[in-house]
Every structure is written in structure tokens, then in C-alpha cells.
Design goal:
The chain is α/β, with parallel strands linked by helices. It is built from 11 helices and 11 strands. Belongs to the ComB family.
Length: 239
């Protein structure tokens, strides 16, 4: 397998993803929310770029639709929930369609439209995702980042998935320099991921808003055994 990583949605180009297996990661918090919602019974997640797109989708598609998202970590006026995985309880999301827009995560998904296949990953379902990726030939991991820039938590998650693949594939795994760097960052920090991640700007923003429980949850490695992927433009659980 050839494995590359991209450090922010702003660095994604059609040429870097076309014909490849892409994996979008937004630990804090978009992909953690998506994985949790699908694990807890949501039918699908519809990623959109703007609140207006979300409102329009709900207007045109009737009931059993939840609007979920944030701008600068705050709930969007008129939405049902903010971008918190803890809001995605079974009682809230079972048999619901989640329409979602976030500052970074949904941009990363849209940026990777040209990918042959697209998966959604987080620390929550990293191992399950890596098991699927191990069967592929050409993979690119995409960190959503924050406002077009590098984030520590997404890169650590890319490094974790890379490390899992290296353990599985050994010499059959070919890493770019960027993938090697992400893996080494994870290896150096794996005994206390939060200690390093907590120095990051986006982590500190969420902490300043009192979202400590969200943060702890999003760093629960391999707590969900679920693979999430794009099907006809929607994010669904692999059955």
C-alpha cells in the first residue's frame, strides 16, 4: 500500500485525491460526531457547506431530519444541535437523517469529492477503519485542520491510523515523508495524547468554552467498532 497524508482541507486538490481511497479526519469534532450519530442509530449524515444548504435540505425533505453543526465551536441559530458527539444519543438520532455543516470537517469532505472512495474516521473508530484500509492499495489520510491550518489532534489521529497499518502490513506499507512524520508524532505522544494535543489552538478554544467532556470523549481510542463511508454523497455506516 502507498499511504500519504494531508494536513488540512485547504491543501486538498483534485489531483491529490482523484482515484485514491481518502479518509477524512476531524477529531474535534465533526467526524467524531458523525461516527457517534451513525453508531447510535442515525440513518445517514448529509454534509453541507453552509447553514442555508442545511435549511434548504430540511425544507425539501420533510420530517425526521436533524440540523447539526457549528461556526467557531458555537451552535448555529435555528439548528437542533451543536457539533457535540454527546448530543448524538440514541434517543435523539435513531432513524433520523443528520444534516451537518461545520467550520472545517464538512469542507474537508467536500474538498475530497474526487476520491474513488471516501471514509470518515476519528480516534473513536480508528482501528475499525484501519482494518478496511489495509485491503487497499493507494490511501490518503486527510486532516480537516482548523481554518485551513495544521491541528495537533487530527495529525495525531492520522499517525495512529498509520501506525496501525504499519503493524498490520509491515514492509508492504510505503509511507510518504508526511505520513512518516505523522506516525512519529503519534509514537512520541502515545502515552499521553492529551498532553500534546492540549497545547493546540483548537483544543484550547473548545476548553475555553467548557467542552471538556466532548474533548475526553473524542480521545476515546477505538471505543466504536464501526466503519463510515460515502455512498451517493451521503455518509453511512458500512453494514
Amino acid at each position: 500500500m502507498n499511504l500519504d497524508v494531508i494536513f488540512s482541507w485547504s491543501e486538498v486538490t483534485p489531483e491529490r485525491v482523484k482515484g485514491r481511497i481518502a479518509v477524512v479526519i476531524d477529531v474535534l469534532r465533526a467526524t467524531s460526531v458523525m461516527v457517534t450519530a451513525l453508531n447510535n442509530g442515525a440513518l445517514k449524515v448529509i454534509p453541507v457547506l453552509t447553514p442555508d444548504e442545511a435549511f434548504e435540505y430540511k425544507k425539501n425533505n420533510g420530517k425526521d431530519i436533524l440540523l447539526v453543526g457549528e461556526r467557531h465551536a458555537d451552535i448555529i441559530e435555528g439548528f437542533d444541535f451543536s457539533n457535540s458527539p454527546l448530543d448524538m444519543s440514541p434517543i435523539s438520532v435513531t432513524n433520523q437523517t443528520v444534516v451537518m455543516t461545520t467550520t472545517n470537517g464538512t469542507k474537508a469532505i467536500r474538498a475530497a469529492e474526487e476520491a474513488k472512495e471516501l471514509y470518515i474516521a476519528s480516534f473513536l473508530n480508528a482501528r475499525s477503519t484501519a482494518q478496511i484500509l489495509a485491503q487497499q492499495d493507494d490511501v490518503v489520510l486527510i486532516a480537516s485542520g482548523s481554518n485551513g491550518s495544521f491541528t495537533m489532534e487530527d495529525t495525531l489521529c492520522m499517525g495512529y491510523i498509520t501506525n496501525l497499518l504499519e503493524s498490520e502490513l509491515g514492509n508492504a506499507l510505503g509511507l510518504t515523508d508526511a505520513a512518516l512524520a505523522a506516525r512519529q508524532l503519534f509514537i512520541n505522544a502515545q502515552q499521553n495524547l492529551l498532553a500534546l494535543a492540549s497545547q493546540g489552538k483548537h483544543y484550547r478554544l473548545l476548553k475555553s468554552k467548557g467542552l471538556d467532556d466532548d474533548i475526553r470523549y473524542c480521545f476515546s481510542l477505538d471505543s466504536i467498532n464501526l466503519v463510515c463511508y460515502r455512498k451517493n454523497g451521503e455518509i453511512v455506516a458500512l453494514k
